[in-house]
Amino acid sequence: MKFMLIRRGDEDTEAGKLPSEDMLQTMSDYNQRMARAGVFVFGEGLKPSREGCRIDFHDGRPEVRRGTFATPDELIAGFSIIEADSLEEAIEWACQWPTMDRDGNTRLELRRFYELEDFQTGPALESHRQLGERLARQPSQLNTHLVFNGQCRDALNFYADVLGGEVEAMLPFAGTPAADDVPESFRDRIIHGAVNISGRRLMGADMTGECYTRPAGTRIQLEYDDIAAAETVFGRLAEGGVVDMPFAETFWAVRFGMLTDRYGIGWMINCGTKDGDCGPPTSVS
């Protein structure tokens, strides 16, 4: 059974007062105890209601009202999601809430989640079940991994500069168990590199001559709203490479172009979709 353990608001939480270091550590210890017991799923705190809003519907029309709302103890300051075998077990964990919180004068609320089994079988329930199964198959991240013939370090540093990213990893073969599997002259090459671009990653690695295959049939697609920015990126990526399709107006976009950079990586850059068009075609020759 899944429960939401709700921590009700108070004057301090509505004022945006952050917990002390000792309180943060005490809550961490509490959450870790639940995690070790297989109970804790996750927990979050909420900012004051003045930074939120309420949306009331009247005859189908939304009315947005911005905070602050009501009295503090009628609001939610934070919550933890826990899984327990019964309400009684969930209550036991809730009763272990740290007494350091407001000197032991905190109000909690425990609510059980509905589960699909609680509803009558039918088409609507099946659609919810299918959605849940589809979401469960989705990865937490979808990143791009590139292969290079000894140029990974240069390429990823270049991409980080051009695309405003941050190099997160640049691990050479030397010092890894794979070092003995490559020639000594190749051990300064990269076995794993990663550039973080707004939470998405370009990853890469070097392959030895006999293992390396030039990328074919794939391109990295970039989307821009600003024409000048897109033109700059297109031009920089094209330096030393080949322009496969000039960056220009098309029937679906304000600007679009394709290129293969000097490292053999293909790119396509799109800027602005024209009104009434659904985007670029599935293939461009």
Structure description:
The protein has 285 residues and is of the alpha+beta class. The chain has 3 domains: 2-120 and 128-133, 2-Layer Sandwich (Alpha-Beta Plaits), CATH 3.30.70.1060; 141-209, 2,3-Dihydroxybiphenyl 1,2-Dioxygenase, domain 1 (Roll); 214-285, 2-Layer Sandwich (Signal recognition particle alu RNA binding heterodimer, srp9/1). The protein contains 6 helices and 14 strands. It has helices spanning 11-14, 21-36, 87-94, 123-137, 152-163, 227-238; strands at 2-8, 40-45, 53-58, 61-66, 76-83, 108-112, 144-148, 166-172, 190-197, 200-206, 220-224, 242-248, 253-260, 266-273. It has a 4-stranded antiparallel beta sheet with strand order 2-5-1-6, with helices on one face. A hairpin with a 2-residue loop joins strand 9 and strand 10 (200-206). The longest helix has 16 residues, at 21-36. The termini are far apart.
